[in-house]
Design brief:
Elements lengths: L2 E4 L5 H13 L3 E2 L5 H4 L3 H6 L7 E4 L2 E4 L1 H10 L11 H30 L6 H22 L12 H16 L3 H4 L3 H11 L2 H7 L19 H8 L13 H6 L23 H8 L9 H5 L8 E8 L8 H14 L7 E8 L11 E9 L17 E6 L4 H12 L2 E2 L2 E9 L1
Parallel strand pairs: 1-2
Antiparallel strand pairs: 1-3, 3-4, 5-7, 5-8, 6-7, 6-10, 9-10
Length: 421
Amino acid sequence: MSLKIYSYPNNYRVWKSQIAAQYNGVDIELPPFDFDKDLKTESFKAKNPLQKVPVLETASGCLFESGAIARYVARLRADTNLLGASAFQQGQVDQWIDFSTNELEPARAIWLYPIMGYLQYNEKATQEAKKELQKSLNVLNQHLLSNTFLVGNAVTLADIVVATALVDLWRMVFTSKFISPYSNVSRWFNTLVNQPEFSRVLGKVELAKEEAQPPKAPKADKKKEAAAAAPKKEAAPKEEKPAAAAASSEESAMPKKKVNPLDALPPSSMDLDTIKKLCFSQRPHLPDFLEQLWPQFDAAGYSWWTCDYKYNNDNKEYWKIGNLLGGFIQRSDACRKYALGSIQCAGPDDEDCAGPWDITGAWLFRGTDMLPDMLSENPDAEYYEWKKIDVATDAGKAKIKEYFFGETVNGKKVQDRRFFK
């Protein structure tokens, strides 16, 4: 059984486990998860009685709390020393993880959550949060004055946890003016997020050009204000959870869903769910799926694309490729409603040779003129060259068959193939 993490997309608490998995060569699946429905089911409650995400499912059972999940993934391979190379270093790793949990993340939440729409904006609380973050950044900056990484001479889980807590701050509110006093932090952070293990999970991370602001509150209704000012019967006070405490706990609020422009397209004569069921009505797939598809294919509503990894010559360690394939599938989850695809590696049979192995794929997308906007949420997509295929021609149909189901692709034997469905 492969590892599975249940969560909503782009959860920074999940990123730390995903990045640790990249360093350890561990494949983690992020299955589709309907936050509004699945969270309330008895089956999910059995995984986490708190009914919060993230949750890691393993062959031995389930783990909840993101810190425990990240440590579990880090322990799966001892030689990478993600938890430290000695007892003292292990203590240092724990120190910085606790620093992130107790110092960085509460202030992070108070500043960012009003912008994201999770908390009501409070000017005083936001200014206090900024001050707290400046204190934390100063601590990091002093430590990194004489250290390349937080612990030892290589990346550990300490770097992963602290850096992932800073990513959204970096992208949304950390301007060059705000971060300029902390040059050592900038050097360390940019070194990390440009490592392949980080970039495969996070994509490109750039400093905010300007500080994002929370939505403006609607103008007050004078009639409602007058009604509110009228005397009311006293009601028993309700206990409220402090904002900072709520922000620092594992999240149980789903981000608001974006409206996808693909939903506004004219209705299609072809139903994608039906097509997916047809394709996988047999294992591993229906042998003549494409032959059955072409007569009913809606060229006005859908398009076929191939993708080729731009850096195939770098694929010289076979054990890393499975992670690339699995990671791409996981990070494409946002376009699951609009796509069907396959991605595979092709090359030598000998896993111990120097390769290289080629990564390619074929994808069916809703829409005709461009790749769906949802694919942009997959940070790996930019590492591929995408070509639209004209399936009105025999050559186009043959290309899709080769890239989607072929035993060989571009003359090389397919060694591993993953389907997105």
